Amino acid sequence: MSKIGIIGGTGLYEMESFHNKEWIELETPFGKPSDSYLRGKLGEKEVLFLPRHGRGHTILPGELNYRANIYGFKKLGVERLIAVSAVGSLKKKLQPLDIFLPDQFFNRTSRADTFFGEGIAAHISFADPICPYLIEILAQAARKMKARVHKGGTYVNIEGPAFSTRAESGLYRQWGMDIIGMTSMVEAKLAREAEMCYANMAMITDYDCWHGESVTVDIIIENLKKNTNMSMRTLRRAVELIDVGDERSCFCRSALKDAIVTDREKISPEVIERLGPLVKNYLK
């Protein structure tokens, strides 16, 4: 089983650098993921890739089955998950074509963001939502590729699918937000519940509309195309740097250790079966 996963965002629907490719279709207790998972080799390491919005970009941010996507990675053995996303900048120093590595999120959505409920309660620690090991790997990889990279800051996750009004964009700037996007917060939370390391490589495509120019899909796609080579080279380097043989010393690996509060005798076999890959170490 692969231990490294990559979620591709807008503009990244397949991994051209993969060899020994195999598409894997699976079902989860939470429904179908966005697409099949692409298993392949990136360099010498096996990696699993999922196009977040499906091949052909058929799924809106608010329509994504985040739980199925992350559960599928867990079921396939992924321990470290890198997400790539297109974002807007809320600060002048964060320029289009830069890479931003957020370490905080601010959620403006109300999407399904937990595997728990329906007979089992769990409360994970989420003060630091990004894996410290994985964000450092991405930072090292981006610097090696001579990218303009910014490590640390806050990603505000809006509902979409429309881009922000100027009033909203201005307010997020007053709040001190750094970048704006539509997808990554829920992924980070579910990955933590699944005890997976998670980090986001946010590709800045535009200044949000606070800067004067309206945000359009044309602008985003144009800059994504310009940055495709850099993002792919950075991903390849990051995968090279990840030590898949270590035991993971970060807090991600045991996020559920003290999080499940339901009396074990009250948890039904159906719940245990539904959440099997997530809770098998705690509900034996």
What does this structure look like?
- This protein has 284 residues and is α/β, with parallel strands linked by helices.
- It has a single domain, classed as Rossmann fold (3-Layer(aba) Sandwich), CATH 3.40.50.1580.
- Helix content is 27%, strand content 22%.
- It has 7 helices and 11 strands.
- Strands 1, 2, 3, 4, 5, 6, 7, 8, 9, 10 and 11 form an 11-stranded mixed β-sheet that branches.
- Strand 3 and strand 4 form a beta hairpin.
- Helix 1 crosses helix 4 and helix 2 crosses helix 5.
- The protein is globular.
Secondary structure layout:
Elements: E1 4-8, E2 19-24, E3 37-42, E4 45-51, H1 66-75, E5 80-89, E6 99-101, E7 104-107, H2 132-144, E8 149-151, E9 154-157, H3 166-174, E10 179-181, H4 184-193, E11 197-207, H5 217-241, H6 269-274, H7 276-279
Parallel strand pairs: 1-4, 1-5, 5-11, 6-8, 7-9, 9-10
Antiparallel strand pairs: 2-3, 3-4, 5-10, 6-11
Structure characteristics:
284 residues, alpha/beta, Rossmann fold, 11-stranded mixed sheet, 11 strands, 27% helix
Q: Major β-sheet, in short?
A: 11 strands, mixed
CATH class: Alpha Beta
Average residue-wise pLDDT = 92
Approximate strand percentage:
15-25%
> Structural class from helices and strands?
alpha/beta
